[in-house]
Predict the structure.
Amino acid sequence: MQRPYNFSAGPAAMPAEVLEQAAAEMLNWPDAQGRLSGMGVMEMSHRGKEFLSIYEAAEADLRELLAVPANFKILFMQGGGLAENAIVPLNLSGLRAGNGQGAADFVLTGSWSEKSFKEAGKYCSNHIAASSKPDGFTAIPPTASWELRDNASYVHICSNETIHGIEFQSLPDLKALGSKAELVIDFSSHVASRPVDWSRVGLAFGGAQKNLGPAGLTLVVVREDLLGHALSICPSAFDYKTVADNGSMYNTPPTYSIYIAGLVFKWLKRQGGVAAMEARNIAKAELLYGAIDATGFYMNGVARNARSRMNVPFFLRNESLNDAFLAGAKEAGLLQLKGHKSVGGMRASIYNAIPLEGVQALVQYMQEFERTHG
């Protein structure tokens, strides 16, 4: 029986075979040799050999998938992207402060980068280097227009904006812009969907619940030389150096979320890794945007060079049909297509776990709905 296609923006769809494996192992987790542990992962000590084997495999698989260089630490934390909006400035804003206040610059391209900017203001001097808000967050400001400060420790971008459907197709080269700041990226909603140019990144963070697993796990990938600069007010559990020195075990980590993410990492490797997923994601996005652009019935207002492959917002030009569209979609097994409450309309999140067949089914439904309601 075909499961419905779940287009939720997060927590989001997960590969069926991952869920099936987790269900089979719920009561009695087997190790790599098939030896039963006598307990489920949720019952394990995070310091026991059983869970440590799960953790070490997950970290190694993620490093391989994302091609993370050896001089970067991978941290498994909690709190989601929202918490990192505070944790990042607590750790990095003082990098170039001397005896003064730390500083960070922000490029606003949607709701999430805007939230990051506001939160950082509690801990450092925050500055908007560029913003596309006046245009309704429908584009990415050209890098030549960015007003970067000399004293900024880092420049923050959200490399994929889930709500507005904006994605950086390539990461900015801050050195080429004459900046000595580190680039911080929130890659929550497109991590593992495309390669990362680590030569341009100082730190990347993201909640796992959109593309890599269940809610509860937050990934932080940080270059080693950026550790050890936390502000004195930074809680110990959020100090990246403390977390790194303790192998993400300073406090009890989200063990079950790490386990599920580890299963997703192995699933991604079986699919051919990030390069193969990127090719699939390009095909899915082209199909869906093509259907939207082919008609006057639907509309997407994002600049074509900034359209997200992961989150596709679209609108019915006759918005009185919204409820009928959503009701029909649910009957067709196409779930959670309602747009974010702040922007309205529709949104299809087509993460790695959504197959091409799911997008084909959505496009077929959109075309049929237009035929009967146009």
